[in-house]
Amino acid sequence: MFKSFISYYKPYKLIFSLDMIASFFVSAIAMVYPILTQYMLEDFIPNQKINLVIIFGLTLLFLYLIRMYLKYFVQYYGHCMGVSMQADMRRDMFKKLEKMPFSFYDEHESGKIMSRMVNDLQVVSELAHHGPENIFICGFMIIGSFIYLAILNWALTLIIFACVPVLAFISLFMRKRMDDAFTKTRIETAVINANLESSIAGIRVTKAYNNENFEEEKFQKGNKSFVSARSKAYKRMGQFGASTGFITDVFNVIVLLAGGIFLYYDQINFAEYSAFIVSVNLFITPLTTFINFVETYQDGVTGFRRFYEIMQLDEEKDTNVIKNIKLSGNIEFKNVTFKYDSSNDILTDFSLNIKQGQKVALVGPSGGGKTTICHLLPHFYDITNGDILFDNESINNISNYDLRQNIGIVQQDVFLFNDTIKENIRYGKLDASDEEVYKAAKLARIDEDILKMPNGYDTVIGERGVKLSGGQKQRLSIARVFLKDPSILILDEATSALDNATELQIEKALDDLAKNRTTLVVAHRLSTIFNSDLICVIEDGKLIEKGNHDELLKQEGVYKKLYETTIK
Prior knowledge:
Layout: H1 2-7, H2 13-30, H3 32-44, H4 50-98, H5 102-107, H6 110-152, H7 154-161, H8 164-201, H9 203-208, H10 212-264, H11 270-311, E1 331-338, E2 347-354, E3 359-363, H12 370-376, E4 385-390, E5 393-394, H13 400-405, E6 407-410, H14 421-426, H15 434-443, H16 447-451, H17 470-484, E7 488-492, H18 500-514, E8 518-522, E9 534-539, E10 542-547, H19 549-555, H20 558-566
Parallel strand pairs: 3-8, 3-9, 6-7, 7-8
Antiparallel strand pairs: 1-2, 1-4, 4-5, 9-10
Helix pairs in contact: 2-4, 2-6, 3-4, 3-11, 4-6, 6-7, 6-8, 6-11, 7-10, 8-10, 8-11, 10-11, 15-17
């Protein structure tokens, strides 16, 4: 994990090096003041060297002016480096998420994923900037002040530094407890984000059922868990800060008592004693800074660990054996068995041969496996056993990208982006011209609705297409498929949100689109699939009947019962 974190500094080696150099001189200039103090008290003032007092004073002022600009450089460019590293991590995480299999999103809520990408990486950015800087500056100041103090009086220095092992022990003891507390805080933050994302996305349902109070109580429950987790983290942090703060205060007590005794017995002169007191502060200040930095370190490490966990997950498998393939539309399911993780079989020994250009309808009770079949065709999930062949080629040999280029999907749950109508249609073919977009809209029978809108094709439809009716959303989604022009179509309840008039409007368009293309239709309305070349009845993951409409009615089986229930 450490190597992974360090790798993000590579693109910023120059700015990182300049930042460390600037930090070095910031620390070095700080060491000048106690040295000048000693010279002042030992030589310049007793010997009335007023010119040297003024010269050294002006020199110190000039050095502090340089130090001011160096601090600005460290603060500004150091933070910019941290933010750039954060952006790189977020970019890599987004790329990773794009390559994750569907099963990952079945297990992880979008709000929790967003928390890892935004909140966690924010604290990682702080660590990326302040980590090396604080370690470098504090380390240099502690070592430098120790050497200078030892030169002034090594015996007194050893007495003072006897407290350092105690401080180190307390820090190590508290670190593990803080780590656990901060990890719990990150988890609770993710839960809050997930609940918030879910509640906002479902606000219309909440209002429709008057469940505002219920949502508030649910959110408050998560909020209290966050407060509890954060309180425990602050408790550990408070224990750490109070304990280490006490040890650093002891330094001052030791300097006062031991230094006074050394001064009384002429083991140190007044000038050395004064310089010693000033230099001890140079030691205590970076030590305190380093101790306070532990919170940033702990928070950042916890955040990066959660980022690293995502980056280590297995990506969607893709053999990429066959690329740039144009499928004709022949599909064969060969003894396919499939189940989701730790669940019973959704499909069991399922076999079906679909010829190029056929319109095949899948019907049957809910939960029987119809939508699962639609998910397996684009290789959204790996089958457990068996194989799926496209033009006699195994699905495992065709790259996912090329396979999905040949498949168009219209689902029951339409997802639209908060963008213009034109760009939502163009999502089916990103390099499509405006004329191609307009043609696709006409084929989907939605162009007249679009032209009536205030800004036409440039109308922004809101999050998830909130400004459109259910039928308009569905037709917009269908327009994407027209634009993509695939050889295989999957219509998973594609007309479920349409009224009868609208449904009739697009039936001809769908029939035109299905010509010379393989079309798989999942439908509960049997009236929409009477003209299918093949109707398959799926129940409990098995193909129990197949044939055209008339053939299935003659069998007097499950299909006939469904027909009599839904039509008559």
